[in-house]
Amino acid sequence: MSKITNLLERIDGAVWGPVMVTALIGTGIFLMFRLHFLPWRNLGYALRSVFGKDSHKKNGSGDITPFAALMTTLAATIGTGNIAGVATAMVMGGPGALVWMWISAMVGLATKYTECTLAVRFRERDQNGEMCGGPMYTIKNGFRCKKLGMVLAALFAVFTVLASFGIGDLTQANSISSAIYGTFHIPTWITGLVITILAFVVLVGGIQSISKVSSILVPAMAVLYMMAGFACIFSRIQNVPAGLAQIFHMAFTARAAAGGVGGTIVVTMMNAMRAGCSRGVFSNEAGLGSAAITSAAATTDYPARQGYISMTGAFFDTIVVCTVTGLSIAASGVLGTKGPDGHVLNGVELTMQAFQSVLGPMGAWIVAISLTLFAFSTIIGWEYMGEVALKFLVKNPSASYVYRVLFAFMSLIGSTVEMQLVWTLSDITNALMAIPNLISLLALSGVAVKETVIYQKKVVVPEREARRVRRKQKCVQNT
Fold first, then answer.
1. pLDDT in tens, 398-457
2. What CATH code is assigned to 2-464?
3. What whole-number distance in Å separates Cα of residue 105 and Cα of residue 63?
4. What is the rounded distance in angstroms from the CA atom of residue 98 to the CA atom of residue 325?
5. What is the Cβ-side half-sphere exposure of residue 188, based on CA atoms within 13 angstroms?
6. Which residues of 159-189 are buried (b: 16+ CB within 10 A; e: fewer)?
7. pLDDT tens-digit series, residues 75-93
8. Given a cut of 70, is residue 130 above it in pLDDT?
9. Which of 58, 84, 339, 391 would staple 348 via disulfide (CB 3.0–4.6 Å)?
10. What proportion of the chain, given as a percentage, has pLDDT over 70?
11. Spans of all domains in the chain
């Protein structure tokens, strides 16, 4: 078993190594140039669209509202990476890793916009009348070479199904049970049983049930975590300027030391870049294609409209939530702290220590509860993605119901067993999803550009002009 574990760890290091990270970031840069930087230029428009009334309406074809689609996407992406992943990045790459997480997210806006726009453009309805889309349908319907398209589409679907059980279910349930046991000393099998029952209740209703729960759960859990995070940051506000200076300094310094009252770590700029970019991509999933699966179910009249709404997921996930975690750790001065076993605190333990240093035992409870909510939302979000991928591979409608029951049951297994091997396998399948997806993004980028130009001329520019007219009228009325 140790030989298999070592082999898988080497494969994991290779697929999530510099080549994959460079491919993900490089594709984002290429798409940003092809789109004439519109994902950046229209970021304000995209954010207004998310919070506007239209995002809650069903305008056009689809199954769920644009807002519900975004919340379901965020349910799958906002998870342990936002709490434990940020801490891990800052230990591996120092505080400067946070800057590279921001950079990966800003570049990832173009990637996520493109994959979601294409998903809506090439989606189709299944035999039950439900909308299905994502990279597998984009590749199948968009590639001129149908044989190559079917091979790449099938590979993506297979990797997605495997990843849904791994990174989307087993590992998330394990994170929940471990956090609950470590904080409240509740046996893992009890936690696993509760997760399984709750997951089954939500999943049995399909995308309608998942989207309704996500629309309530995601905003609530984000507000809870961010309020606690802001409390940590503002209670140590005197440390924030120095913390920010250290973050930017270590992001671009060849070799530097960082830490606080707890201890010190020494890292290089390459450590910061590698850890920040890889953890950033892992957190917001830009380029992996997962968000496109949920976006394809949204009701919309233009593919680009949902593309803009969906791309804000990378912004909320990394620029907002991950930043709260990173600044809480930087301001608290616990980076480099050693635990009772003599090892440097890492992952969720470091984040708990940061919150606990300010809020006391309540800080650790809030992190544990937030991690539980984040991970549970990831479970239900990833189930839908895996189910759509399974539908692509297996046309029998009953397979979806079997998958839902099996997916819920796997949460119990994930809660009660050691998961190191599964974590490694999950990382590998998660990364392998990116390969066919990135190929499709590069090959079909011209289609995304055309959709963007059409939407820019017919919707964005007219709406912008209408806002200018309204502002002028208000100015005249006020004078």
1. 888 899 999 999 888 888 876 666 667 777 887 888 899 999 999 999 999 999 999 999
2. 1.20.1740.10
3. 28
4. 10
5. 17
6. bbbbbbbbbbbbbbbbbbbbbbbebeeeebe
7. 888 877 788 888 888 887 7
8. yes
9. 84
10. 94
11. 2-464
- In angstroms, the CA 428 to CA 167 distance is 10
Residue written as token pair 């091997």: 421
Give, as one character, the DSSP assignment of residue 458: I
Tell me the C-alpha distance between 69 and 242, whole Å: 39
Which contacts of 409-413 are long-range, i.e. CB under 8 A and separated by 24 or more positions? 409/196, 410/165, 410/169, 410/170, 410/173, 411/169, 411/170, 411/172, 411/173, 411/192, 411/195, 411/196, 411/199, 411/379, 412/173, 412/189, 412/192, 412/193, 412/195, 412/196, 413/170, 413/173, 413/192
Instruction: Write down the pTM of the prediction.
Output: 0.88
Residue 111 near residue 24, CB atoms below 8 Å = yes
The end-to-end CA distance of the chain, in Å, is: 78
Residue 293 has pLDDT above 80, yes or no: yes
